[in-house]
Amino acid sequence: MIHAPQVRTLRRTAVIGARWLPLIAWMTLIFWLSAQPVVPHPGRAIGLGDHLVDYVAHAVLFGVLALCAWWALGDARLARRLTGRRRLAAALGLAMLYAVSDELHQALVPGRCATIPDLLADGAGIAAGGLFLWLITGRHSP
């Protein structure tokens, strides 16, 4: 028989997993992609420039990362301290720190390099994710 404290612990573990696993999984995907010596650039095949496709991919990956970070930071234990703008700022800051660490990681991978334009594309995606969150969660929440 499962006792009430065990049920609370299991429920809490499930909530933590539901909040943090998407962020950890997305960060793992980004890390894995950055560790590849060569990443295919399908731009020419679809009639677009490789750089355009690359920058859009960076923006999308890091925009989603910002959303995942915001979701994770909604964990009840943090929610009391991180509400509204603070939660959004923390999520965007976490995503940007990861973007910087991702560029540093790429600098260490043979065949890859760290570039400012990639970091700017990451930042643009993070900003777009932040704007989206700001619009849907209420612009005036404290």
Would you kindly provide a brief summary of this structure?
The protein is an all-alpha fold and 142 residues long. 74% of the residues lie in helices and 0% in strands.
What does this molecule look like?
The protein is 74% helix and 0% strand. It is an all-alpha fold. The protein has one domain (4-38, 49-137). The longest helix is centred in the N-terminal third of the chain and has 32 residues, at 4-35.
Radius of gyration: 18 Å
Mean pLDDT: 85
Secondary-structure-derived class: mainly alpha
The stretches of 5 or more residues where confidence is low (pLDDT under 50) are none
Whole-Å distance between the termini? Answer: 44 Å
**Major beta sheet summary:** none
Question: How many DSSP helices?
Answer: 5
Percent strand equals under 5%
Silhouette: globular
Oligomer: single chain
Helix content: over 70%
Helices and strands, in order, run as HHHHH
Note the topology.
Layout: H1 4-35, H2 50-72, H3 76-79, H4 84-107, H5 116-137
List key phrases describing it.
single chain, 5 helices, 142 residues, 74% helix, globular, mainly alpha
